[in-house]
Input
Amino acid sequence: MAYSATSPQELEYLHHFMGIALQEAEKALQDDEVPIAAVLVAGQEIIAQNHNQTAHHNSNLAHAEMLVLEQAGQKIGRWRIRETTLFVTLEPCCMCAGAMVLARIAKVVYALADAKSGACGSIFNVPQEPRLNHQISIIGGIRSEESKVLLQQFFACKRRKPKDRRIQYYW
Output
């Protein structure tokens, strides 16, 4: 989903905050986490930013978007985070898209579409589901190549590491 900005100022705004999200995604890469990050913005102010921490927290809920929405709610003292824009380096999944709808954000801007689990237009379109009580504007394709490179670096590194072939059971 390529996006055509309505003005040079809008494109500059989108590129600026996606750049901050990409810098945050680089932190995830350094932490050996999947390099996905999110930045929540109100106007020109960053409310919260974070990157994936699923391995660090040993939790499948620790996606960048979920962490940012939780941080923002704590910071502003309410769970509805209206009139904000969430910048994400990879198209959000169903869980994160659902949380965005519940938080009532106004807009999601993502870099790279996710053909495997994208829920903002690629596979599902949760933010614009008409049966839900809130819809979110979606912009995709902002600085997608940079996000793609980070993800490729991460997975190339993972493929090079020797794998432990032993089966481990945890119960």
